């Protein structure tokens, strides 16, 4: 974890190699250190992202920036699922005080740098 210029904790959700919802949920559980009770469904993800009590230590007080990288392969393989994931990220940002979710590079870290969008 790092911090941004505003002092918020920055966590990277690395989706490199993820091409389905199950993979996304597992990667969220791993990279975000979600609790064992995380339900691995869209509602549980939205609830977890919006709940500062499950964020990394110190993030509830300082804020949390979630950078989603390596997302393009998933978006291309499952565009309908990716649309739901984007909605979940947006909803969680609206619900969670201090949470900001942003799309980082879309490609693999093994490839040339990719731009979002």
From TrEMBL:
Residue intervals of the Barstar (barnase inhibitor) domain: 10-94
Domain of life: Bacteria
Signal peptide per UniProt: none
Entries under Gene3D superfamilies matching the protein: Barstar-like
Family annotation (Pfam families): Barstar
This protein's name: Barstar family protein
Similarity-based family: Belongs to the barstar family.
């Amino acid at each position: 974890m790092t911090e941004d210029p505003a002092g918020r904790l920055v966590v990277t959700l690395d989706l490199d190699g993820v091409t389905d919802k199950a993979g996304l949920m597992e990667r969220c559980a791993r990279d975000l250190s979600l609790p064992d009770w995380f339900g691995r469904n869209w509602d549980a993800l939205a609830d977890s992202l919006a709940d500062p009590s499950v964020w990394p230590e110190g993030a509830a007080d300082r804020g949390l920036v979630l950078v989603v990288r390596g997302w393009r392969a998933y978006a291309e393989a499952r565009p309908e699922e990716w649309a739901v994931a984007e909605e979940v990220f947006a909803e969680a940002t609206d619900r969670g005080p201090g949470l900001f979710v942003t799309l980082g590079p879309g490609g693999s870290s093994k490839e040339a740098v990719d731009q979002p969008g």
